[in-house]
Amino acid sequence: MRESVELFIRSVHLTAAILWFGGVLFSTFVVTPILQQNLSPENLLTIHNRFRTLIRLMIHVLLTTGAMVFFIVALNNGFFTGNSNDDFKAYMLIFVVKLAAFGIMALFWGLYSSFYRKHLELAPPDGDAYHSQSRHINVWRGLMLVAGLIVFALTLLL
Ligand code: HEM
């Protein structure tokens, strides 16, 4: 029973990770460059707000299921009975670093999405939302993608 619960939580975590990272990559490199040249800022804002809701949900799912998986691994390794070994201490260290990288990534996502939203709200209705976009918006998005890759890399070490 415990194994199937663990498997279920892990699969939700993995699905949320794929949706989050895949969604951000697809939006950054495929959808946004095309839509920005063809849609009004108002329509772009509607799309961005929908996307924000989905990503915010995924971030919460990742946080909740990640904490649950960690709890299960800790339980399996005797952490709560004081029987954990050195391997688990190394695991915990990588986990904490992954959590910090996740926090930084979520911060960059928040900055990017708020600045981009503000940019679209202030853009003239018939203006060119693409060429008037400030560089710092793309910088926050790039940093968020890098932080996301670091989270994935740390997961490989777990
Ligand atoms: C962008 C954010 C994140 C991504 C992309 C990500 C990605 C992943 C992936 C792909 C796995 C392997 C899934 C599996 O088969 O078990 C995993 C496992 C795990 N994640 Fe995350 N994760 C993220 C955030 C988090 C957070 C916030 C936490 C903690 C609160 C967390 C804790 C864990 C733990 C404990 C495991 C199990 C590792 C193991 O022992 O096998 N993750 N993560």
Task: Write the SSE topology.
Layout: H1 2-38, H2 41-76, H3 86-122, H4 135-157
Residues 10, 13-14, 17, 20-21, 62-63, 66-67, 69-70, 73, 95, 99, 102, 105, 148, 151-152, 155, 158 line the site of protoporphyrin IX containing FE.
Briefly, what is this?
It is built from four helices and no strands. The chain is mainly α. The longest helix is centred in the N-terminal third of the chain and has 37 residues, at 2-38.
What does this structure look like?
This protein has helices at 2-38, 41-76, 86-122, 135-157. The mean pLDDT is 91. The protein has 158 residues and is mainly α. It has one domain. Helix content is 84%, strand content 0%. It has 4 helices and no strands. The protein is elongated. α1 runs antiparallel to α2 (41-76), α2 (41-76) runs antiparallel to α3 and α3 (86-122) runs antiparallel to α4. It binds protoporphyrin IX containing FE (HEM). Protoporphyrin IX containing FE binds at residues 10, 13-14, 17, 20-21, 62-63, 66-67, 69-70, 73, 95, 99, 102, 105, 148, 151-152, 155, 158.
